[in-house]
Amino acid sequence: MGKFDFKGSAEYTVNYMNGVVKGMENLINMTSDRIRTGELEKEEVLHIGKMKLYHYIPLVEESKLQDTPMLITYALVNKQYMMDLQPDRSVIKSFLEKGIDTYIIDWGYPAKEDMYMTLEDHIEWYMDDCVDYIIKKSGKPQITLLGVCQGGTFSAIYTSLHQDKIKNFIAMVAPIDFSINEGLLFKWSKHFNVDKMVDAYGNVPADLMNAVFVLLKPFELMIDKYVGFGAAMADPSYLENFLRTENWIFDSPDQEGETLRQFVKDMYEDNKLIKGEFELGGKEVKLENITCPLLVICAKYDHLVPPVSTEPLLDAVSSTDKEFHIFDVGHVGIYISPNSKNEIAPIIGDWIVERS
Amino acid sequence: MDFFNKEMYEKGLKLQKDMMAQYMDAVQNFSKFFHDDSEKKEKKDAESIFGTMQAATEAMLKNSGDMTQNMWKSYENMLRMWLDFTPGSDIFHRMNPEEVMPVMERFFSSMSMYTKLYDFWKECIADASENLKDPFGAAERYVKKSEELLREMSQEFLKPIMSDDVFSLMESYADFGKTLNSSLEDFMAPWREKREALLDCIAKASTGDKESYAEFVALVTDAYQNSFGKLFNMKNVGMAKDKIAINLEMLDSYVRMMFSYFEIAANVQNILRDANTELWEKIQEMMADPEKDLTFKDFYDMWIRVNSAAVNKFYFTDEFADFINQYATNAYDFKIKADRFMESMLAGLPIPTDSEMKSVYKTVYDLRKDVRDLKKEIASLRAELEELK
């Protein structure tokens, strides 16, 4: 008969608490600059409403800059600086080192006065103004568009409508086919009364969104994650990375009500984009209008946007130059895991450089 | 450094020293149990050693639990003091509390759950060790304790991710439910008619029938709709009838929200009860292996895996999607009606209401779009003009 190992349990606990105390010491000695995010130097070049367009200061000489500038469009949920969350794993730094002239959209923190903003406003107003600005500033006729998560959906819609302005399109963990049942957000959204939610709140509070994301995996995200944190916080670099990531995860803007309503109804409920039935501002959006080179990036363990939601983009477009990569990471890991700078970002960077 | 800075700095240092001393005390107590006088220890019988080890672990965990709680509070207080007394000092500028405090709050909340889980594990294995001849009884008690633990944890889960007002609303469900239940029995006929069935459900639940709580919720919901629900929805008379009607609508939506929450809770509880019964069986199997020693860490890893898998499986069912949608819809409905009630109460005061502000937001939004369109038109006309020139 086996036995309950009290001694082993107690030793484990003492070691654990030792780590916590050491971790607390680290925390006392922690300074804000050590957990600062978005360290790369950038300048604000355009500001409309709450939206800001940033231009990263190149890390190579002007003569070594690639011909085609790139715009990164992130989701409305969470903030775009996760692409430059920590210096040693910055995806953007990797792009800059390859001479890619990089711009990024910061959607800002919507307030109540933004509750009537629509998908059309984000894509045909803000995004289009950003693209026009970059084209004018660079003197190039086209740009590379990199869309991340929901920003990938926006970018697919934008490219369908403005293929003439887009030279290359990259979709990273972007939901395209919403008919799937693999991810809980996809599953629940089909039963979801978004009208009531938006009518109740106007802008949907970030706290509510965070609660939903955490409750997708309550045991892992409410207990196990922090138990793991306690076990590892004695390591200063782990502590720094954890604090950066944690602050980013909970740095969530409220969601503009009308935009969310339209996105849930047209995408999650009716799956209009992949079916070719989506209209934006009276214009038909057809993914088959996309003819430029396409790179699709997925995360194998993505529980928010499973790869099966993104992969159909490859068949829906008319592009002949198409490439697909899937990595052994989760939704967030694709930007902040040790692989992000060493493996994932170089693959994207090389793909862009070859087509710049 | 001025007087206040120095004083606060010294207080902070003392606090850190105290924290460390508290921890060292816990560790030394623990070491005494294990490492002092190994010869004597060998002479003790196995039962006594186990008891001693268990007591040491408990003492240490209790100390460490207190320590982390105190450390958290003291730490926060310390930073707050620095914030109040030493703006601009080097000490304050080392860290922005906003970057650390919310993370640590979530960490300490998880530690509190972790400690509860340890207590649960400790009680269950003590029970199993003492009642070797009654494994079924031990299993039954394990499942019951497991339910209590999960109920407590479900409260802890929500604390760090919900704003205080939303969380207190959630907490008040339980109190509201108790008040409601206590008055139901004599209030209206539907409750009297269902009394036997309700009691039957409670009796079944006490013997471990996992379906009975869901049945209980369904019966209560039905009785409510035929009693309080009708009362809350009835037309009112008198000068304040409109306001009363709005108030009752709000109450009705609140109760509906509460019931749908109970329905989810009852179903999740059933799922987790099954999962924990299986977990107990797995533990029994593992203990049958003479080579295997089971630590708390082993138990914790299994507990997380099994409960997580059970919840995940349930989440992916249409049934759960319907439950969560029903709850969310009722919650939003309650908010809409509560806002409407609040606006009706504020109507006589010179305060702009939410509806009025929404109208202003819409006007501003439309104007912004008009400005944007006009700017584009001007730019286009300017371009045309340039071409003509």
Could you explain how this protein is built, in words?
The complex is a heterodimer of chains A (356) and B (389). Chain A has helices at 6-29, 91-97, 119-138, 150-161, 184-189, 194-201, 206-215, 218-232, 236-249, 257-269, 272-275, 307-310, 312-316, 333-336, 338-355, and strands at 3-4, 42-48, 51-56, 70-73, 102-106, 143-148, 166-172, 279-280, 283-284, 294-299, 322-327. Chain A is α/β, with parallel strands linked by helices. In chain A, the strands form 2 sheets. Chain A has an 8-stranded mixed β-sheet, sandwiched between helices. A two-stranded antiparallel sheet of chain A has the order 8-9. In chain A, strand 4, helix 2 (91-97) and strand 5 form a beta-alpha-beta unit. In chain A, helix 2 (91-97) packs parallel to helix 15 (338-355), helix 3 (119-138) packs across helix 4 and helix 6 (194-201) packs antiparallel against helix 10. The longest helix of chain A is centred in the first third of the chain and has 24 residues, at 6-29. The mean pLDDT of chain A is 92. Chain B is extended, with a radius of gyration of 30 Å. Chain B has helices spanning 3-35, 38-43, 46-85, 97-130, 135-158, 164-187, 189-206, 212-225, 228-233, 241-287, 296-315, 318-346, 354-388, and one strand at 293-294. Chain B has 389 residues and is mainly α. Strand 1 of chain A pairs parallel with strand 1 (293-294) of chain B, so a sheet runs across the interface.
A few lines on this structure:
With 356 residues, chain A is α/β, with parallel strands linked by helices.
Order of helices and strands of chain A: EHEEEHEHEHEHHHHHHHEEEHHEHH
Q: Find the structural class of chain A using helix and strand composition.
A: alpha/beta
- Quaternary structure of the protein: heterodimer
Order of strands, main sheet of chain A, comes to 2-3-5-4-6-7-10-11
Q: Low-confidence spans of chain B: pLDDT under 50, at least 5 residues?
A: 1-5, 38-47, 67-75, 81-93
Shape of chain A: globular
**Using DSSP, what is the number of strands of chain A?**
11
Principal-axis shape of chain B: extended
Total number of helices of chain B: 13
Largest Cβ-defined interface:
A-B, 72 and 89 residues
First-last Cα distance of chain B: 70 Å
Residue share in helix of chain B: over 70%
Topology order of chain B in helix (H) and strand (E) letters: HHHHHHHHHHEHHH
- State which percent range the strand residues of chain B make up: under 5%
What is the rounded distance between the termini of chain A?
68 Å
Based on secondary structure, the structural category of chain B is: mainly alpha
